Amino acid sequence: MYSVEIDEYVSHECDMEHKYYLEDYEGEMARWCKGCGDHAILSSVQKIFRDRQINPESVVCVSGIGCSSRFPYYLKTYGFHGIHGRALPISTGVSIARPDLHVLTVMGDGDCFSIGAGHWIHALRYNVNLTVMVFDNEVYALTKKQASPTTKSGVSTNTTPKGAYLEALNPLSTILGVTNVSFLAQTATWLPAHLGETLQKAWDHNGLSFVRILQRCPIFSPNAFMEGNQVKVAMKFLDYPGGIPITQALKKMGEVVEHDFRDLDAARKIAGNIAVEPIGLLYHNPAIPTYNEIRHSKVVHKSLQERAADLNKELDKYLV
Ligand SMILES: Cc1ncc(C[n+]2csc(CCOP(=O)(O)OP(=O)(O)O)c2C)c(N)n1
Ligand code: SF4
Fold this sequence. Notes:
Blueprint: H1 3-14, H2 38-52, E1 59-63, H3 71-74, E2 78-81, H4 87-97, E3 102-108, H5 109-115, H6 117-126, E4 130-136, H7 171-176, E5 183-188, H8 192-204, E6 208-214, E7 226-227, E8 230-231, E9 235-239, H9 248-251, E10 255-258, H10 264-272, E11 277-284, H11 291-298, H12 304-316
Parallel strand pairs: 1-2, 1-3, 3-4, 4-6, 5-6, 9-10, 9-11
Antiparallel strand pairs: 5-11, 7-8
Helix pairs in contact: 2-8, 5-6
Bound molecules: thiamine diphosphate and iron/sulfur cluster (SF4).
């Protein structure tokens, strides 16, 4: 009666090389639309976790609200589907309280650059220890096509039927203008190998690693980056030893420029030209202290007995 269960259990236990399989990171069945770039990001993260044998219980995935923010349902780790725009304060709390866990923050462009903009700037300045991914489809998708800060001017949406009036926000320039920024990379959902390499680099960074992912939404912003199935957005691949590898296949998809990711001024210059999307590592400075380190170095850690003595001293003040 019990033999099947025992056999399965034994075969898993004996495979010492792979303790965790892809299915160990698979949560609910993803309900994103067919062709949605979010699927590519999810499978990239799951593959990285499998290849690196990440313990699912050591990761907390925190999101806001949006199509992108359904990520924690589909990734089988600890998860927190938060409030629109508030993924970063929640992530900050988790990261400070539980430095032993790795926090993966997921937001959409509306979530991060609009309602969450205040948190975005300050989380960067605090350099909280987080891996942050923004899925940027240049529209509010979950609420069915309102203009977001990164919607290009002239693009028709439900809130701007005659075309968006304003020039789009440049998130890369904004990020590189914030004090203490320590990691910025950009990649795209239609470049799976580059996406995977970028996320691995971001994962390894101690501090806030910010990855803007240009994300296909074939339903509400099909023309943002593509024309049918062809990539139409102009791309500039950033190449440098120790950066994100630019393969021969990528070299055929756009111009390649050498960019030293340690040079903040050079990164700002590249980020300033959004007519051509830079793809790669824009900036990396691992020397900037994280807020976690600063915070924990300032806190005096007292023993249980010392804390009890302090409490008794306070209470003694109210004795009559
Ligand atoms: C406080 C608050 N304001 C507005 C909404 C409605 N709302 C839900 S998702 C969303 C925008 C989602 O767009 P984005 O963040 O770009 O993510 P996407 O769906 O494109 O992944 C909005 C405005 C909300 N849920 N809560
Ligand atoms: S509406 Fe767009 S972003 Fe949302 S699941 Fe569908 S394709 Fe993805």
